[in-house]
Amino acid sequence: MVNKILLISVSSWAIAQVLKLLISAAVYHKFDLNYLFTGGGMPSSHSALVCSCAVSTAFDAGLSSPVFAVSAVMAFIVMYDAANVRLETGKQARVLNQLMRGWGEGRPEVFEAELKELIGHTPLQVAMGAVLGVAVGVGGSLLWIG
User: Fold this and answer.
1) Which residues, in sequence order, are CB contacts of 31 under 8 Å at separation 6+?
2) How many other CB atoms are found less than 10 A from the CB of residue 49?
């Protein structure tokens, strides 16, 4: 037996990751497979995943169900985190990396490798991930649930 909501949600995440790879290749003229497995960038795969989960849960359990309420609340938390907390963390990492580059040989051992800067999302990236997630959630639900 297949968990259709989980399959739809993971499919939405995978589509967002592939789109992220294709968009970065078009914008930066560089085909980097790391975009398939990284956070950050356009569109937000986190937003796509949680929105498709909430939408397909609504189709399966109904808008008045407690499980839909939980999935919708979690979607808002994840999207807020991606566009705010994680975005600011990436900005801080950029500043710290710049400071550490200036230290040269005298930099502390804890900073052997640069911190990851592409962590969060802009509000547009979150919104586009949400649109993708809703579309995949509706489409997948109409095909498999409804």
Assistant:
1) 21, 25
2) 26
Q: Tokens standing for 104?
A: 């040269």
Task: Parse the chain into domains and list their residue ranges.
Answer: 4-144
CB burial string 1-16: b at 16+ within 10 A, e below: eeebbeebbebbbebb
Residue 118 in tokens: 């592409």
How does pLDDT run across 27-74, given as a tens digit for each residue?
Answer: 888 887 877 787 777 899 999 999 999 999 999 999 999 999 999 999
Long-range contacts formed by 26-34: CB under 8 A, 24+ apart: none
pLDDT digits 0-9 by tens, 115-143: 666 666 788 888 999 999 999 999 999 99
Taking each helix axis from N to C terminus, what angle separates 123-144 and 4-28, rounded to the nearest 10 degrees?
Answer: 140
